[in-house]
Structure formats: C-alpha cells, structure tokens
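To whoever is covering the structure queue this week,

Two jobs came back overnight. Logging them here so there's a record in the thread.

Job A:
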Amino acid sequence: MKKIALALCAVLSAVFMATGCVSREKESSSDPSVIGPSNVEIYLPDGAPALAMAEQLHWDREGDSKHYYVVNAQTIQTYVTGEAPKADLCVLPLNLASKLLGTGETYQMLGTVTHGNLFMLSTDASLQYTAENLEALKGKTVGVVQLPNVPGLTFKVILEENNVPWQELGNSASPAADKVNLKAVDPNQVAPSTGLDCYVVPEPAASLKVTATANAPKPLSFVGDLQKLYGGEKGYPQAVLVAKKSFIQGNGEWINSFISEMEGAAEWLKTAEPSLIVSAVSRHLTEGMTPAFTEKNLSQAVISHCGIRFETAAGYKTEVNAFLDKMIAVSPVSAAKVAEGFYYHA
C-alpha cells in the first residue's frame, strides 16, 4: 500500500509540473504549439504604443526568444532604416511608417495598435467641442503639443473635415478673427496662465494637467475628444505594428500567432493593476530614459483615453488609406500614399 501511495504521489507531481509548464507557456504565447524563431528583435516607442504591448512585456522573461526594447519616440525610425535595420517588428506612427516603409519592400504593416490619445483642454469648461460647434474656435488661439507631428496633423484634418479655416501662428503672424489660430507649445506651456484659449494635448500629459490645476482659480478641464471628433468611437489609426518582410516570409505561422496575442492585449489592460503595467514597461526602457507612464499618472481612465486595440492590416486598410489621404491634404510632406504590398495578408 505504501508503494502504491508513493507511486500515486509521483504521478500527481508529474501532472502538476506538466500543468505548470503548459500554464506558463500559455501565459507568454497565444499558441505555444507554434515553434518560432530563436531570436526576435521588437522595438516600440514609450507612451501609448508601449501600453499596447504591456501584456507581452509583462510575460517577457530572460531567455525568451522575443527581445523587447522600449525606446525614445524620437529615435524609432532608426530601427527600421539603413542597410541592416535592427527591428524584426516595430511600432511607429502611421505617417512615419507611410513615408519610410510605404512601398512594402522591406517592411509590411501587420495592423494598427493605437487609435488616438488626443484631447482638448481649456479653462472654460462651459463649451464642449463637437463636430457641430467647432466653428466656435474661430478667432481663438489653440496651443498644440507637437504641432508639426501627428497631434497637429490630426487636429488640422478635423478642422478641414468640418470646413473650419485655420492658420499656424509663426513668429510674425497675428491671430485672425475668422480662423482658428494654431500655436506650437510644449507640455510645460500648457497652463491656465498662458492666455491661450484652448490646448490639444496627448495623454498622459492631458490628465496630468487637469489634475495639477484642479485647485487653481481657473483649472484646466477636458473640453474635446479628437478621437470622437474624427471618427466617433473608432478614433483614427495612430500607431502601427510593422514586421520585416524577410522575417515574415520565414515565420508566417509565428507572425499569425503574434497577431492573435495583440488582438487580446487590450482586454488584459482593462484588469491589470497600473503598478504591474508600469513595471512591465519600465523593465524594457532604454537606460537613462524617463518613462511616460508612472504609478502616479497611469489609471484606467488614462488607459481608456489611449485608444488601444488591434486592427489587422487587411481588415483596416480602407481606414488607414483614408486617414493618410487626409494628412497628405493638409501637409503633403508629412505622410505618403502606400502600396498594396504594404499591407500584410495572413
């Protein structure tokens, strides 16, 4: 009887060990049966794109085949350009991807990962901006964080779509009464005391400004949602995931498995503790970088403001092409039309 008991214990131990191994594999991969490459280099900019891959970053362990690098957004293009680009997979702004990779010869787009994190702030909360009343911005000066880049391009697209004239205020231009006057500002200049009428600010800076000025005589409040102003609940295609074409050709099954992981990543964010998310991203930051998100500024409200969800390239190309056309219309040098070969088809 004692021998039988010992044998039973051994069998049960083996079962539990096997179950534990399978569980760990499932946690780190949507399909552990897929045998992938031995080394995968994945680069993504800090901020909302890093949140989009926070689940993968959380389960990443030393010795895994996937190597994630969270880098400064200003340097992301360096990982997909040159004679021997470092990135097998990379997340970057759509407009930048269209200009650098739009031919589809070296990289293909797997899908969109974020769909806007831009909000309007003002000390006058009595007027909430919608598509029906954007004309109320005429004659006002709007400070835009990153005016030459996606935030400014998107706001210009929205104004154009609603037939609201605008101009950029340079060093010599004066505000016009019959146009929306756009002024480039950095996050530090978003404050009640600057005298501007309104601001366009990305998260998490937008929520930080609202919180920081809550006790001011004239606090900043949310007065507009650029995602809804552009495309209702869907927002606009902001950041995209691309993969090296030569890598795709040799690892198609692995790519499809990774896409499946990405499709479920937004759900994980809804229940994960902010501290867990911050830790996952921080472990992969480039040395010396200050993270965009911390336990003080990351909340479920902020996450919900980042438009994180995965849309496949094949299923979302109509929306991507439409947004590119609109960006080109307001700034021909800021984006480019892409070839059909840019879109990955499983």
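Job B:
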Amino acid sequence: MKIAKSNAVNVNGGRFGANVRTRIDGTTKPHWGTDLYAEVNTPVYSIDDGVVVRIVNDHSPGQSNGPNDFGNFVEIETHLPNGNIKRILYAHLNSTNLVVGDSISSQTQIGLSGRTGNAKNVPNPHVHVQVKMNGIKVNPELFLEAEFDDLGSSINLPCN
C-alpha cells in the first residue's frame, strides 16, 4: 500500500491537509482525503463494517463532470459504540455492485478502482478515501492499518 503522488513527484498532494496542493497561480488548495495507489480495476475493500448510505455509479471509465467530481463512489456509515458516526467515502471507482442500504463487513469488496471523476487523467491511478467523524473531515491515515513514510510507502504493513 502506498500513497499516490498527485503529479510525477509530489506525494504530499495525495495526503490529507488544508494546504497540500498548489494551483498554477501558486495558491494552495485543500485535499480532504488520502489517495491510495491502485492500478485500474484493482478490487477495493471496505475498511470497516457499516451500511452503504450513498452511491454514484453512473460514470464510464475516463468520464469527469468537472474539477470537483469524485466520479463513481461508495460511502459507508458506521455507528460506533461511543455514539460517534463515521462515514468513509471511496472515490474514483470504475464500478460497484453495492446498493444503498446494503450492510457490509470489514473487507467486503465494494468495487473496482478506476479513473473516474477528476482522477480521469492523473499520472497515478488511485482510490480517494475520505473520512468524516460526526460530519467533520479527518485524516484517513488514522484509520488505515498502515503508516506511511515521507515518500508515501507503508512502513508497517506486513504485505507491502
């Protein structure tokens, strides 16, 4: 597992943060997710148990409807024992077979990675993972079974 670079050299652009991507005019823009490198049509699995609460599955591979388009995605909601609600969104999928209301368990295949939405032409194919706790965007790296070095490679995952 590794973080996808947002261009040929910048791994930080694939990480969560308020000022991690630079526009052509030099200003920065936020990236509220983590981009996990995945060759196109790689199976994508859920991080957690939950219920599918939102799906978009109408994009053909390579299709985008604008700069803020996630393409095909699945969003899964988990109610935690402490009362918190976690939502995890998996974006830029080529396809999914799930439907809203499906209950899934951790490691359920939720779709195939792809190049949809604003990731249609990126140099590094990836799945954009976005996490919200009680509606607040938080760093997805906190919920992955891996830690990443400065180059975006996992440093503690047994099956790199």
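Note for Job B: The domain at 35-143 is CATH 2.70.70.10 (Glucose Permease (Domain IIA)).

Please reply-all if you pick these up so we don't duplicate work.
Q.
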